[in-house]
Amino acid sequence: MPTCIPSPIAWTPDHGIRILDQTLLPSEESYRDLETIEAVAEAIRMLRVRGAPLIGIAAAMGVVQAVGKRGKLAPSAARGEEAGKNEIEAVQQACKVLGATRPTAVNLRWALERMRRRAELGAERGEPLRPALIAEANAIWEEDRAMCRRIGELGATLIPTGATVCTMCNAGALATGGIGTALAPVYTLHESGRAPHVVIPETRPLLQGSRLTAWELSHAGVSCTLIADGMAASRLRRGDVACVIVGADRIAANGDVANKIGTYGLALAARAHGIPFYVAAPSSTVDRATADGSRIPIEERAPEEVTTWRGSRMAPEGIGVWNPAFDVTPAELVTAIITDKGIFNPRDVR
Questions:
Q1: Of 94, 100, 142, 131, which Cα lies nearest the Cα of 116?
Q2: From 47-51, 83-87, 201-205, 216-220, the region with the lowest mean pLDDT
Q3: Both 213 and 124 in a single domain?
Q4: How far apart are CA 331 and CA 122, in angstroms?
Q5: Which of residues 147, 178, 211 is at a domain's end?
Q6: Is the peptide bond before 205 cis (omega within 30 degrees of 0)?
Q7: Are residues 205 and 228 in the same domain?
Q8: What does the buried/exposed string (b/e) look like for 156-173 if buried means 16 or more CB atoms within 10 Å of the residue's CB?
Q9: Is the predicted pLDDT of residue 170 greater than 60, yes or no?
Q10: I need a surface site. Which of 22, 109, 203, 309 has the fewest CB within 10 A?
C-alpha cells in the first residue's frame, strides 16, 4: 500500500478490529474499534468498511470475535464435547450474521466459508480455536495483499505511458487489503514514475469517487480530475481517455460483472467511443456457482441515501426511490478481466 494512505483496517493489541470509518472521509480521518460481531456487521452494512476484498477481510476478522479473547482453550476432550459444540455454533452464527450484511459481494461469502471450514477443522483436531481463526484471517489478508500486487503488475502492461484512465467508485487501497484492484495498476506505474492521469466520476449517491478515490489518489500524489457522473460519456467522447478500469463485487461464470451502480453506463459509453473497458478483481471475486449476471443478487439500499445527504434533505418528502447499490455489465462490453491469475477474455475468466 502507498505509505501515505492510512490502512483501512488493522488488529487492535487484543485482536479486536480497528477500522478507518470511510463514511466520514474526506473531512474527518476517524478510527473505530470493533469488538463484537454486531459492531462488525454494522460497520459493513453502513459502509464504514467497504469494497469487496476488504469486506471479506473484515468479515474474516469479525469471526474471530465470536470465540472470546482468551484464546487458550483446552483441547475438546478436556473441555468437553458440549463446549466444543458451542464454539462451532458461535462461529456458524457469526457467519450467518455477517453474511447477511451485503448480498452482492461474493468475497464476503467466500471468506466466511473459509473461516467456518477452518473452525470445524480446528475442532476436529482439538486446537485452540481463537489462534487458529486469527491465523486464517491473517492468511486471507496477506493473500489479498499479494493478489492486489499481482493485479497491479499485470494491469500496468495495458496502460500506455502518459495515458489518462477513467475509473468508477473506489477500488483502491481503501477497498482492499493491499494497493487495490482497479487502482493497483495506477499505483504500480506511480512507483516507477509513470502514473497515468485518472478521471474519477463522483459515484452517486454516496460519492465514493469524490470522497474516497480522489482522496486516496491525492494523498498518493497521483494526478486526477473529478467529474460528475453525468459527465462521463462526454468526457470519453473527447478522445483523451485511453481506457476504463473498474473493480468488481462479483463476476459470474460467463464473465458478467456486478460493480457499483453506474458501471454499466460507463461500459456502454466506452464501447460507443471505442475505448477498452477493463475489470480488475482478485480471483476470489469470480463466482462459478452463479451462471450469469441475471442471477447475481443486487443489494437495494435505503431511500435516504438518495433523498438526503448527511442530514440535509435533497428531495421532496414522500418521493418514490429506487436505489440499487450495483448494476451488472454484460461480458460482451468487457474488453478483459485482470485477476491475480492473469488477463482473460471475460468468457474465459477463472
A1: 94
A2: 83-87
A3: no
A4: 40
A5: 147
A6: yes
A7: yes
A8: bebbeeebbbbbbbbbbb
A9: yes
A10: 309
Element containing residue 329 per DSSP (H, E): strand 326-329
Q: Which residue has the higher pLDDT, 105 or 70?
A: 105
Place of cell 477474455: 345
Distance CA 238, CA 160 (A): 17
What tens digit of pLDDT does each residue of 75-108 get?
444 444 555 678 899 999 999 999 999 999 899 9
Q: pLDDT, tens digit, for every residue of 150-165? A: 999 999 999 999 999 9
**By the 8 A CB rule, do 246 and 167 touch?**
yes
Tell me which amino acid residue 126 is.
Answer: G
Partnered with residue 19 across adjacent β-strands are: 9, 32
pLDDT of residue 75: 41
Query: pLDDT per residue over 108-139, tens digit each?
Result: 999 999 999 999 999 889 888 999 999 999 99
Cell digits of residue 255: 464473465
Q: Is residue 135 part of a domain?
A: yes
75 and 191 fall within a common domain: no
pTM of the full predicted structure?
A: 0.92
In this predicted structure, what is the pLDDT of residue 3?
Answer: 60
DSSP character at residue 255: S
Query: Cell 492486489 maps to which residue?
Result: 148
pLDDT higher than threshold 70 for residue 1: no
**Measured over all CA atoms, what is the biggest interatomic distance in the chain, rounded to whole angstroms?**
71
Cβ atoms of 179 and 4 within 8 Å: the answer is no
Domains of the chain: total: 2
Judgement on whether residues 141 and 286 belong to the same structural domain of the protein: no
Concerning whether 249 is annotated as a catalytic residue, the answer is: yes
Look at residue 21 and give its three-state secondary structure.
Answer: coil
Residue 115 shares a structural domain with residue 67: yes
Are 58 and 38 in contact by the 8 Å Cβ rule? The answer is no
Q: Which of 229, 249, 256, 287 is catalytic?
A: 249
Q: Where are the beta strands (DSSP E) in 12-78?
A: 17-20, 31-34
